[in-house]
Structures are given as C-alpha cells and as structure tokens.
Amino acid sequence: MKTILTKVIAITVFLFWMSSTLLSQVITVTPTLPTATDQVVVTFDATLGNAALKDFAGDIYAHTGVNVDGIEQWAYVIGAWGVNTAQPKLTRSGSNPNLYTLTISPSIREFYKVPAEKKITKLCFVFRSADGSKQTSPDILYNVYEPGLSLTLSNPLKDQPIYELNSAVAIEASANNSTSLSIFIDNIQVNTTTNATISYSYPASAYGNHWIKAVASDATSTLADSVNIIVRPAVITEELPAGVKPGINYIDNTTVTLVLKDPAAKKSYAFAFGDFSDWLIKADYYMKRTSDGKYYWITLSGLDPNKEYGFQYNVDGNITIADPYSEKLLDPWSDQYIVDSTYSGLKQYPVGKTTGIVSIFKTGQQPYPWQVTNFSNPDKSKLIIYELLVRDFTHAHSYARVADSIAYFKRLGVNVIELMPINEFDGNLSWGYNPSFYFAPDKYYGPANELKRLVDVAHQNGIAVVLDLVLNHSYGQSPFLKLYFDKNTNKPTVDNPWYNVQSNFTNPDAQWGYDFNHESIETQALVDSISRFWMSEYKVDGFRFDFTKGFSNTPHTSSDPWGGQYDAARITILERMANKIWEYKSDAYVIAEHLSDNAEETVLANHGLMLWGNLNGSYLDAGMGFIPNSNFSGISYKSRGWNNPNLIGYMESHDEERSMYKNLTSGNSDGAYSVKNLKTALNRSKLTSLFLIPVPGPKMIWQFGEVGYDFSIDLNGRTGEKPIRWDYMNNADRSLLFSHYATLNKLKREYAPFSGTDFTTSFSGVIKTMRLTSGAETAVIIGNFDVKSMVTTVSFPTTGKWYEFFSQDSVTITSTDLNLTLGAGAYRMFTNTRLIQKDTYTSTPIIQADNSGVWLNVYPNPSNGSSINILAGSKVPTEAEVSVYSLSGQKLATLFTGTIIDQELIQVQNNYRAGIYIISVKTKTTTLSQKLVIF
Predict the structure, then answer these.
(1) How many Å apart are CA 303 and CA 253, to the nearest integer?
(2) 694 and 579, same structural domain?
(3) What is the pLDDT of residues 548-571, one digit of tens each?
(4) Based on the domain organization, do 502 and 603 belong to the same domain?
(5) Full domain range(s) for residue 78
(6) What share of the chain in percent tops pLDDT 90?
(7) Is the peptide bond before 305 cis (omega within 30 degrees of 0)?
C-alpha cells in the first residue's frame, strides 16, 4: 500500500506543460493577441478540456501566473494554491452555467505585478473548485505577444491536423498592427484582407499533406504562421510481418517495424511521426491495419544505426501517445532536471515540435556484455533482503553508484537487493508507485546499461536483484490508459482492455491512479510480458508486487475497506501470474505485498509465493521498551499455520516509521537507563535484530536500518527526499550495529538452525526467547526488552557445555534450567557448538570488477584496527598501481606498483586514524576505487 505524493501546483506546472495552441479551445481571450499592456477578458468553457468542472454548481477560482522570458514558468502567481480568498474568482455567465469569465485589469503586467524589465510570454491557468475536489488539467497556457506586428494561426489546431476527404477545414488567423493579412494553401493565396482577422473554409478535396499558412505584413516587416494538415485516405489492410510483436521490433541495423495494438479493434487509423517525419503527420507514415483490426504497423527502413529517433503515434486524430512498450522515453517535464553526471548525452526533447512523452529507438545498439549469464538464486530460507530507494541511497541517485556500493552489501551479508520501482514513473522524485511505462528504466537514475551492470555486479557477488513492480494501477501518462480514455469523465472507457472504469475499492485511501483489470486476458498478457521482459533483458531474479490485494475485481466496501477478506478470484489470478514467471525462471522470487486474511495468505504461501510480514508496530514497541504491544510472534511462519517458510518478516520497510527514530524520540526509560540515549537506542536495535534475522524464513532490512537511520518517514513529507547518511559509518557505535547485523546475516546464511524448520518462540513477554535446532546444532536466544534489569530462568534442551556467542564465553550447566540476570536491553545467544565471533562480516573478499576484467577487494571493511587485506587482480597481466587516498583526494601512500594477474595480495598494517579512506587500483585503461572504513 502506498501514499502517492499529492502533486501541488509547483510540481504540476512541470508535469503537465503543453502548448497554448493545444488548449486554446478551453479558453478564449479578448483581445485574441494580448500584449502585456492590454486589459484582457478570459472566457473559460467548463465543458472542454478534461471537463472536470462541467455543471459544477459552486464557485470556481483561478490559480494563475505568467511565464516570463521563456524561462521562468508559473512566475508571479496570484495568491497561493488552494487559498481561495487570495485567488481570483471567476464570474459565471448568466445564460450558460458552464461559461465563466475572468477580467485581468488594468493590464496583464499590472495585474500580476511583473517588473517592467521582464518579458511576459504566457498566461498560466488552473481552474479549481472552491472545495478543491475538481480542477482543470493539464495546465492552460496562452501566448502573450510583444507590441508591434504579431500573428497567430488559431485554426486549424496544430495538434489536430488530420481531416477526412471533403470535410470543411475552418481556417482562422489574427494579427496585431498589420496592413495586410493573407491565407495560403499549398503556397497559393486563397484570401486576403486589411482587417485584423481573417477566415477561410477549405473543402479538403484532395488526399495527402497540405500546408496552410497565414502571412501578416506592415510597412517594414512580414510574419508567417503555418500548419501542416493531412487529408487521410483509406487504411491499407495487411497482416503483420512474421515474428513481430507489439512495440519496437528491430529488423536489422537500419530497419524497425513499429506495432501498435488495439485489442478492442475500436480505433479507425494511426500514424507514426517523429524525427523521421520532421515531426509532421505525413502520408508516408500512415500505418497499415491487420484484417482483425487489432494491430497497426509500419516498417521504417534506411535508418541511421548511430542515431536515436524520437517518435509518437497519432490515433484517430485526437490521441497522441508514446509506444507503450518503449524501453527509453523523453519527458518534456522531468528530463530537464537530469544532470549529465547521472545520464551523459541524453537526447534533447523536441521542444516546439510535439508535446507529451516521446518514445526512442536506435537500431545500432550494442548488447550489454554480461559477465554472469547463469545465476542461481540463493535459497529462499536463507534470504536477507535489502530494500532500497535509489533516490535516497546514494547522493548521485544512480544505478551506477548502487552498483559501486556492492562491497557494502557483501560486507553486510545480504543476498538480495530489492529496488523500489525503477520503471518510468511520473516526475523524478517519486517513490515510483505512480508508474506510467513498464518497460523503460527511469532515466533519473541513469542509463539502462548501468542498471544492467548493477544486476551483473550483484550476480558476480552472489547477490540476487528483485524489482518492485506496481501493477495494481498506473497514472495518466500511460499509453494503455490514454488509448481508451474518456476526457469527459476523466476515467477509462468501458471498452478499455486493461483498466476498470472504477476501482473495486470504495475506500478512497485504497485507490491510486487508474485501476488495472486483472481479470482481463489483455492485462494478464501484459503482466506476463512485463515480468518476462525484466527477467530476460535485465536478468532480474524476481519481483515484489505492490498491493496485490487489488489484483481482482471483487468489490471491497466499507465492511472490508482494505480488501483483507478471503478472495478466491484473487488467489487464482496471483497463482496464474506466478506460474507464468516460474515457467521462464523456475527459481524466480515472487513476492506479494498482500497483508490480507491469513487463510488466503496460507494458500498463496503454500503455492510458493513469498509474502510480506509487517511487524513494524510490535518491533517498535519492543525496541522502545513498551511491553504490552510488543508481541511479534507473527514474525514466525509457523505462528500463521503455514507449511512453508515463505514469510518475509521485517520490522521496517519503506512504508513504516523508522525504529531508531522512535527509540530516540519516544523511547521508554527507568532511572539512568533511557532508550532516548543514542548508544542505548543503538543497542536496542541490536536486541530487536537478534529477534528478527535468526527467525527461520526470509527477512528484510530497510536501507540504513543496519546503522540506525533515525530520520522520520514523514521528514519532507512521507514520500519526500530523505538525508543520505553514509557518514554514519564514522560513528563507532553505529559501525558496531552494522557489524552486529552483518554477523547475524552471515549466521543466517551459514548456521543451519537459523534456516531450519525445528524451532519454538516465546515473543509475548518482557523476556523473549527462541530455540532453534538443526540436526545436532541448537541455539537458545534470550532477550530482556524491559528498561530495567530482570531475573529469568532459561530452559535448555540438554545439560553440559554451552557457548555464549556475544561474550565468546562458555558455561557448563548441570540442570536444563539456568537462572540468569539480564540487564535492561541485554541479550544472550547460547549454542551447543562453539561459534567463533570475529569479523565474520568481512572475511569474504568482495568482487568489484569492471568490464575490462580488473577487480579490487578490500577486507575486513570496516576495519577495527587489525591488518587490512587488499586484493587487486586482472584477467590478463596488467601494470597497476595500488594507492590509498584521503576523502579529499590527497594521496597518502602508494601500496603497490607492478604487474597484477589473477590476484595480488597486499597486507597493510593499520597506520591510519579512524575515518574513511579510498583504496584505488589504477591501470592504463581503468581505475577502480573502494571506500575503507576504519573505526
């Protein structure tokens, strides 16, 4: 379940920019060509555009500002968003209740209080109901003209250039300060006047493209404005070429076939247009249609293999969409904020030539050189999943920097990285739960090949990668939505093959975007194609599916607001989806954020799905020292009556409050012992993690929980950006918490009782205990969750010698009951075989390789002051230098120079103070660096 950040106007102006010509029919302006010094009357027709305010009986207000100098957008806004008393109120027409006027007086410049030196280029409007429930979308922009000669061709509209044979094309143009105004069709003058306006009705009597041009002149200059229209012929019927499928099909180095699917066979025609057509609708790019009416297609040849081509589809003259299967897109609202260091050489958006999302293809692409092609997923019973949001994990918010952090994951001992949604979503700074395109990685995080490298490097280090997919809903940019969308109701049409008209949830908090119809065979086929694409093209190892309670059409009313009750139809849909995934990759992880009735989750778990197990509230209370609500028994799959350990238990995820934040702000205390003390709070996190990770079954850690991340989920708004605190590793107590997590993670993977099936738990009281057994090995874990010392009796299965792991001490017991005094927050783990506690989390070398075959390993890392091992290696003999640098870039020492092959071991005594250092290996062709933390 997700909270999608409500987009206030400061964001929507970038997300929904469109040209004034596209929306000019929603408003009319008098005078038609206003200048900054004019008084202006704006007339709004509520029945046009998205018609959200049609027949609205209440007051309507204008959120309005101007664009200045072509750069400043939505500047000099009147009032504040949603504050009606500070914003202009529209006047309703007495004769037509859907017509409203707004007078901008005494002039545009004075009304908006724009300084005289600023050039005003556009008026900007969003009209909104007084209660805020309804508003126009997208933003309405209208040109403001400079004094002197000016001209606009107001009709035909540039976004609606397609006409039927013999239809009447109304041509209208207006000019300021002209002495003559003329209309030309295909360079032949058909009308002229000395007036300020001109019109002409063109009969569209010939198929093909036609240029309509308006020309205005005064005594010294001439202006022209034009539009290309096309009178379309009948569609050619021809079957699909063999082997092609919906989307972009690469035929050879200079040829592609574009295929657009119309499953309902409701559309009449389609054009492809883009760089190859100079962004004009041309007869040469009229798409053929199959005999069943379900596919439109065109083959483009003679393409430059080294060029990226942007394109869109125009369907039925009034729908413009990107290809829904695009693997790369251009976004006119968000791309401008992508920096070159994240995505170098990004193709520029064709500003002024089109609007909306643009698809990209390139015929001469080189395949990614995968280093690992046969990765086997780690055993589900030993999974330690690390959930992260790329945006908030690295300062560069990039796939590349996550890949470069692989040594961190290896040291921590996780074996699955779960990425929050990375397929294209609306905007840049979202959590990703507002998806729009399902086959394209979001460019804000970097190029596609960097995502592939992330997966590849993870696989080199034995770590699987899981993608979070959002298939309950999508948002308004989705072509699947736009192809069948009713602008009057702002909902999918009844014949939309992929979406429901209305969500099956009446609870508004359980509705996001537009609801997929998972009972539709078209949606099921789409779901299958999405999962197969990411497994084949990016070699990902599985998926976490968001809000799977929404994957049916079963009505959920106020009696079941979150859809938790048993739903047989939903089970059938999810099992079918999982089976299709396993057909392609038999060991793929299929994870559901389901959180429903246990009877339903039991069926899904027994079928092989893994399910999220949210015990956040209980673990938070336990960590803070509040016992009544600290029972986290539900972390055990056995407590739920499941046959298989398919419960992914966690105390934090992206969706819950952070435990360290709660410890520090709301922790309990007794005398001098206070959970609000940082050191104590970190030790409490050790305690709770000891009662999380060893519990058999897969477990999940939310990013930086292993170092005690202590910023609230609500900082900067729930989904807002959060501070990135790699510097936490400089704090000795936080680094020790990391060590604690890493040690437990290693034991999870290698100590059989932690992944076995023979275990018992007692998690309800102040003293919580757990016994785990596998064969001859047994562990007994005890923890005091109170804020004061407690005396307890611990039961052991046998007498004899037992080894306490954390103190590395032993005790010989003659009775199976042992009396212990545990201080506040204290814990013990006894095993009947000795487990040596050392730098278990750093004892395995980290493989950090690039495509040249050079690698660098540094361990133990973090180092506690003992010797440091550096492995530098290469597939072939390579001259290299290994050096150590400060974070400021100062070279502190050269550790090795010479030839490396296979691996060169360099042992370094710790002569450096606590801090972060950079270990670097340089060759003639590559440089690899890795951080070293000394505490």
Answers:
(1) 8
(2) no
(3) 999 999 999 999 999 999 999 999
(4) yes
(5) 27-147
(6) 81
(7) no
* 216 vs 179: CA distance, rounded Å: 7
Helix (H) or strand (E) holding 289: strand 288-289
User: Are 705 and 737 spatial neighbours (Cβ–Cβ below 8 Å)?
Assistant: no
- 93, with CB counted inside 10 A (0-12, 13-18, 19+), is middle
Rounded Cα gap, residues 254 and 276, in angstroms: 12
According to DSSP, residue 44 is labeled E
Cβ–Cβ under 8 Å, residues 820 and 850: no
Q: How far apart are CA 438 and CA 419, in angstroms?
A: 15
What are 849's strand-pairing partners?
855
* Token pair 């995502």: residue: 451
Q: Could you tell me if 508 and 584 are in contact, meaning their C-beta atoms sit under 8 angstroms apart? A: no
Same domain, 306 and 330: yes
Condensed to tens digits (0 to 9), the pLDDT of residues 475-491 reads 999 999 999 999 888 89
> In angstroms, rounded to a whole number, what is the distance separating the alpha carbons of residues 21 and 225?
12
Q: Residues 668-707, buried b or exposed e (16+ Cβ, 10 A)?
A: bbeeebbbebeebbbbbbbbbbbbbbbbbbbbbbbbbbbb
Is residue 548 within 8 A of residue 607, CB to CB? The reply is no
* pLDDT score of 17 more than 70: no
> Smallest Cα–Cα separation from 786: which of 824, 756, 749?
824
pLDDT at 864: 59
> Which of 387, 462, 412 minimizes the C-alpha distance to 744?
412
pLDDT at 904: 61
Domain count, the chain: 6
**What is the CA 163 to chain-centroid distance, rounded?**
39
The neighbour count for residue 599, using CB atoms within 10 Å, is: 11
Q: What DSSP line would sit under 756-786, residue for residue?
A: -SEEEEE-SSSEEEEEEEETTEEEEEEEE-S
Report whether pLDDT(308) > 80: yes
Over range 34-52, report the average pLDDT. 93
Same-domain pairing of 809 and 920: no
Cis peptide bond upstream of 241, omega within 30: no
pTM: 0.84
